[in-house]
Amino acid sequence: MIDFEIPEKIAGIRNVIETVAVNMMRPVSRYYDEHEHEIPWDYINFMHTASKAMGGSSMAGGEPKKEGPRFTFQRLAVMVEMLSWGDAGMYLCTPGGMLGSAAVSATGTPEQKERFLARFRGEKPVFDAMCMTEPHCGSDTAAIRTTAMLDKETNEWVLNGEKIFVTAGHKALIDSEGFIVVWATIDPSAGRAGMRPFVIEAGTPGCQVTNMEHKLGIRASDTVSIVLQDCRVPFENILGSPEVVTEKATTGFKGAMATFDATRPLVAAQAIGLARATLELLKEMLAERGVTIRYGLPRQKLTAIEKDVIDMEVMLRSAWWLVLKAVWMMDNGKPNSLESSMAKVRAGDVVNRITQKAVEIMGPLGYSREYLLEKWFRDAKISDIYEGTGQINRLVVARQLLGYRSSELR
DSSP code of 255? Predict the structure, then answer.
C-alpha cells in the first residue's frame, strides 16, 4: 500500500538537504543565473562528500537491499524536490550519477553497472550525461541518425553523428572518470529496434563538445552539443546485447523508455520543488502586504487572490502525489510507464501555471530581478520540455489508457 507520508529515514536526509538548499543554494542562486557556464564547485564538492556520508544519493548509489521496504527512488524524489526548491539549475550540477547512470542502470549488464557506476563512489565528484536528441529529431527517437558500426578487425564500435541539448555534457567530459551515454543505431533498417546505448568515456578521441547553449532558465547547468567523428569505443561499452531482434527490442527503444520511466518522476519532482518555492515566496510577499489567505470559507466569499493561491496549493499537492505513486511503483518493481508520464505531465503543467500566476499577481515586483519569482518563471519551462515534452507524454498516457500502439495514435 502506498504511504504518502515521508518515511523517517528519508525525512532525516531531507532535513540535511534543506540545510544545503537554504545556506548553499539560495544565497548564490542569482549569481549563477547571471554567470552562465560558471561551475558551482563549492556546492558540487560539498554534495559529493555529503552523498558519500549518506551512503549514496543518486542513480549510482548502489543496489537497494532486497529485504524490507525499498525507498531508493522515493528518497531520490524527496531530495530532488528539496534541492530544486533551493535552485533548479544548481541541482542539475549535483554529482554522483544522473541520466547517463539511469541508462546504465536500465540497460546495462551487472558487470557494466559495477564498472561504470562504481566510479561515482570514489574520492572526487564525477559527472555523466545522456545523449539522445539530434539536430533533425527530438521526440521522434526512431529518426536518430547517429551510427555505430562494428570494426571487426579491432573489435571496436565506431560512432559518427551529432547530439544536441545534452544536459551536463560539458561536466561529464572534463574529467577522466566521467562519461556520456550515446544512443545510436547499429542497424538503420531496423528502426527503433536498432537503437543501442553506448558508453563513451571522457577523453575518448573523436568525441568533442562543440557548443554550449545560452538558455532561458536553469542557467547554472550546462547544455551542450557533442560531435562524434570516427569515435572508437571498446566492444564491451555497448549496453546490453548487440543482437538486433525486431520483435523484442529490449535494449533498443524499450531500453530508452525504461530509462525515462525511472527519471521522469524525478523531473516531475524538480518541477514540484520549484513550484513550492514560488508558492511559498508568493505567500510571504502577500503576507508582508497585509494579504492573508482565509482557509475554510465558502469559495464565493474569497477574494480573487485567495482563490488563486488555494488553487495553486491544490495543484501542487495533487502533482506531488502523482510523483510519489510513480516512485513507489519503481521501488516495488511495478511497471510505471503510465504513472511516470502522468507525473511528468502534471508537474510540468503545474510549475508553469504557478510561476506564471505568481509573477502575474505580484505585478512589477514579480517581473523585477529584485526577487527570484521571474527567475523561477524562466526555470520552470524546461520541466515541460526535457525527458519528453508535455505533448509526447500526453501521447504516452493516451496510448496506454486507450490501448493504442504508437503507429495508431500520433
Answer: H
Per-residue pLDDT, 1: 65
Among 275, 279, 268, smallest CA distance to 321 is for 268
Asked whether the predicted pLDDT for residue 64 surpasses 50, the reply is no
DSSP state for residue 293 in the 8-state scheme:
-
Q: Which CATH number fits domain 253-402: 3.30.56.10, 3.30.70.100, 1.20.140.10, 2.60.120.10?
A: 1.20.140.10
Residue 257 identity: M
**Is pLDDT above 90 for 284?**
yes
Q: Where are the domain boundaries for CATH 1.20.140.10 in the chain?
A: 253-402
The H-assigned helical ranges of 21-176 are 29-34, 41-53, 72-86, 88-91, 99-107, 110-117, 169-173
Q: What is the pLDDT of residues 391-402, one digit of tens each?
A: 999 999 999 999
**2 close to 324: Cβ distance less than 8 angstroms:** yes
- Is the pLDDT confidence value at 249 over 60? no
CB 137 within 8 A of CB 146: no
Average pLDDT over residues 306-321: 98
* Residue 387 among the catalytic residues: yes
CATH H superfamily, domain 120-237: Butyryl-CoA Dehydrogenase, subunit A, domain 2 (2.40.110.10)
Kindly state the cell numbers that stand for 47: 554534495
Please pick, among 8, 34, 387, 408, the residue that the annotation labels catalytic: 387
CATH architecture of 8-95: Orthogonal Bundle (1.10)
What pLDDT does residue 65 have?
A: 45
Taking the C-alpha atoms of residue 304 and residue 41, their distance in angstroms, rounded to an integer, is 44
Please say whether the beta carbons of 58 and 94 come within 8 A: yes
Query: Residue 350 CA to chain centroid, in angstroms?
Result: 17
- Any bridge partners for residue 157, and if so which? 150, 233
327-369 per-position pLDDT tens digit: 999 999 999 999 999 999 999 999 999 999 999 999 999 999 9
Q: Which of 338, 348, 339 is nearest to 389 (CA)?
A: 348
Q: What is the mean pLDDT of residues 288-296?
A: 95
